[in-house]
Amino acid sequence: MISAALSALVAVGITKAANPSDATKPTTSYTIDGAEYRTVNLSETDYPDFTYAAESAVDAVVFVKVTVKTNQQYNVDPFWKYFFGIPDSAEREQTGSGSGVIIRPDGYIVTNNHVVQGATKIEVTLNNNKVYDAEVVGTDPATDVALIKIAAENLPVVPFADSDQLRLGEWVLAIGSPLGEQLKGTITAGIVSAKGRSMPNYTGEFKIESFIQTDAAVNPGNSGGALVNKKGELVGINTAIVSQTGAYSGYSFAVPSNIVKKIVSDLIDFGSVKRAKLGVAMSQVDEKTAKEMKLSAPEGVYINEVSKGGAADKAGVKQGDVLIGIDDTKIKTPSGLQEKVNSFHPGDKATLKVVRDGKQLSLPVEFQDGEQATGTVAEDGSVAFYGGSLKAADPEKLAALGLKNGVEIASAGNGKLANAGASDGFIILYVNDQPVSKPQDVIDMAKKSKRAVYIEGVKSNGQAAYFGFAKD
Fold first, then answer.
1. How many domains does the chain have?
2. Each residue of 419-454: pLDDT tens digit?
C-alpha cells in the first residue's frame, strides 16, 4: 500500500512538471514565519538554450589587433660600437591581439586597457571580416577598460544589462577571439561563480575589486570580449584569468557592465573618468563585530577611518559605523561598496544607510571628486596637480643630480599627469620654458597656459625627459 501510494505521488509529480501551463508559473519559497527568501522561475524560457543570446551578440564582438613599437637592447662591445657604429638598441614592432565589444552603432568599441596600451596601430576585424583602423578615445587603467572607435555606421551592438541584478549560478556566455583571429567569434558558456572578486596583483590609487567570476572558458585573446546573459545583454567585459599555465584552468574574471557603462560614458562625454570618492577607510564586518553592533548577519562595511572634509565626513559618517546600504542597494562587502561608489559621478547625491549603536540611520551624501583640485595642499604638505601631487625637492637629491632648483613629483597619481608620462620622483625644471623652484611655480605656469602644459626635467635616475598634456 505504501509503495503504491509513493508510486502514485511520483507519477502525479512527473505529470504536473510536464504540464506546460504549470511550468510557466513561478514558484516561491517561504520561511516558517512567512517571509519570502528565494524565488525560482520555472518557465520554459529559463532552461539553458543559448541560441538567441549567442546569435544576437556574436556579430557585435570584434577581433582587435594591435602593433606596439619596442626597443630591443643589444650587448655591444664598445670596440665594435665605436668603429662600426653598431647601436645599443634597435626599434622593432610587435603585434598582439584581443577582443572588443561594439556598444554604439557609430563605431564605439569597448575593450581592455591592457589590450591597446602602448599601441601605435589598432585594427578591428568585424565578424563579417571587414577590417577598420581604430583610434583610442580614452583609457582607464584602474578598471582595465579602454574605449576605441572605428569610422563605421549602422553596426550591430550589445545592449548593456544591469550587472547588479546578476545572481550566483546564472548562466552567462563569453564571446571573443581566444588564441587569435582564427578563432574569432568563439562562444563558451558557464555560470556566475562569484561576484565582487578582487584581483590581488593590481596596485593602484583606485583599485577596483568587484570582478565577476565565471567558469566560462576564457583564454588569451578573449580579453576585452563580451560576457552576456541569456538575453544577449552585456553583463561584463572579460578581463583576466587565474592560471599557473597562462591558459584557462576554470576561472575567469570580468569587469561588471555597470562599471563599464559609467567609464565609457565619462570617456565619451569628458575625455577622462570622473571618479566619485566617499572618503573612508574600511574593512569587512566579521562575526564578532556583527554581534557587538547587533547586526542580523556579519555583512556590511566597518568604517575604520573617515577622511576629514570628505563626502562621508560631511554626511555625518563616524568611525565605528557599519555601512549596510547606498540607496536601495545592500552593501555586504568592501568590494560591493567600491563598485557602487564607482557608479556615481562627483556631485551625485545618494543616501547612506549605516548602523550606529544598534540603530539604523539614513545619511544624505554628496560624492566628491576622486582627484583633489589642482593647488589643494594635503596634510603632508604636498600640492595636488592634475591627478598627482608635487613637493619641494629635497636639497640632497638635487645636489646628487647636479641641480640647484627643481620641483619633485611626489606622486604621479592616476590621472592626467600620469597619463602624460610622469613618474614618481621626477624633478620638474621647466614648465612651458620657464624655470620653477617650488610647487606654486609649477601651478602658476600651468594656469597661465591657455591650451597645454609642457614640462621638462629629469627622472629620478638623472635621465633628461619631457612630457606634456592638454588642459581641460
1. 4
2. 788 988 999 999 999 999 999 999 989 888 878 899
Contact 222, 180 (CB under 8 A): no
Lowest-pLDDT range, 54-68, 195-209, 251-265? 195-209
Range of the domain at 16: 2-46
DSSP string for residues in 87-148: -SEEEEEEEEEEEEEE-STTSEEEEEHHHHTTEEEEEEE-TTS-EEEEEEEEEETTTTEEEE
Q: Which of 46, 56, 59, 114 is catalytic?
A: 114
> Which residues neighbour 14 within 8 Å (Cβ) at sequence distance 6 or greater?
none
- pLDDT of res. 61: 95
The overall pTM is greater than 0.85: no
Catalytic residue among 140, 144, 215, 321: 144
Helices (H), 412-465: 416-419, 439-448
237 shares a domain with 304: no
CATH number of the domain encompassing residue 347: 2.30.42.10
Check whether residue 53 and residue 41 sit in a common domain.
no
Q: Choose, from 97, 223, 257, 382, the residue flagged as catalytic.
A: 223
The grid coordinates listed for 371 are: 582627484
Q: Is residue 20 part of a domain?
A: yes
Over residues 72-89, the pLDDT tens digits come to: 555 655 655 555 555 665
Q: Is 144 a catalytic residue?
A: yes
Determine whether 223 is an active site residue.
Answer: yes
Active site residue 345: no
